[in-house]
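Work Package 3 committed the consortium to producing structural models of liganded targets before the mid-term review. Because experimental data for this complex are still outstanding, the team generated a predictive model from sequence and the ligand definition alone, so that downstream docking and mutagenesis planning could proceed in parallel. The input record is reproduced below exactly as it was submitted to the modelling pipeline, together with the SMILES string for guanosine-5'-diphosphate.
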Amino acid sequence: MKGRVIKIWSQWATVMVPEGPILARPRGKLLSERVLVGDEVEVKLLPDGRGLILRIEERRNQLQRPPVANVDRLLLVFSRRAPEVGAEWVDRVLLQGEWWRLDIALFLNKSDLLSPKEREEAETFLEVYRRAGYGAWLGSAQEKENLEEVRAFLEAEGVAVLAGESGVGKSRLLNALNPQLALPSGAVSEKTGRGRHTTRHPQLLPMGKGWVVDTPGFSRLVLPPVEPADLGNLFPEIRAFSSRCRFRDCLHRNEPGCAVREAVLSGQVDEGRFGRYLQFLEELLEERKKLY
Ligand SMILES: Nc1nc2c(ncn2[C@@H]2O[C@H](COP(=O)(O)OP(=O)(O)O)[C@@H](O)[C@H]2O)c(=O)[nH]1
Ligand SMILES: [Mg+2]
Ligand SMILES: [Zn+2]
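The resulting structure, written out as tokens with the ligand in place, is given here.
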């Protein structure tokens, strides 16, 4: 029967099959081929109630950090206060998610800590991302405020990974959406790392029709290995204009007939996002200089 690996512990994988979770071991030949959390597998039920993993289905993708296969969605969780997370972090993580072709949304947590003016600033910040085509919501895991959309995003079928610095409220958000998870949240559990789900080994946690991974992904802020001329394709709002540039390999710097720069001037592409695009482009070009 078919199942999905939701947890790995030593030689054993917990595989969710229609009847529920079973402990399963990979067949001898598969031992060298590492089973990953998220893997879709064919298992045979053994007389002792355990399972034997006969086959790993071809992976649609495979993230390195966290090591999870077949990821569908990415939720960026961040806060503007305690801690303050900036646009550069957001854009770098978005690039990674775009590179993996994931469905992406943003959740700005801890709205309860914001003054009315800060709330307005937070909305302005999020509006840039809504206009770029992302779901972007301001809410509070603590006060259970404005969680409807992020809930719908996480409860859909498939696997969602969370990205977010320690302390922004990822675990608290998951608890608010599914209290049965009872994830440890708060500075202490993060520090000792002894909480049930705060280990570095990822596991899939049930969330509606789908699964979520509480191990934060994408925390390394390196750029994806993209060709400089393709960087703009990882910004949806730049991608929307770049086909109208005069040159197909336009980098949107000073090339004549650049439709992207025009869109920035007319306010259709956000200046801040475009600035980060240029910054990342320089970074990519610098990296190449070092290589050759
Ligand atoms: N004020 C406020 N605090 C929150 C909120 N969400 C989480 N926190 C607090 O932020 C701290 C870190 O939360 P946690 O869920 O452990 O963050 P994680 O490291 O991202 O998993 C805890 O003390 C939470 O109680 C929120 O919406 N508002
Ligand atoms: Mg946590
Ligand atoms: Zn251009």
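Reviewers should note the following from the model. The pocket of magnesium ion (ligand 2) is lined by residues 170-171, 185 (CB under 6 Å). These observations will guide the Year 2 experiments.
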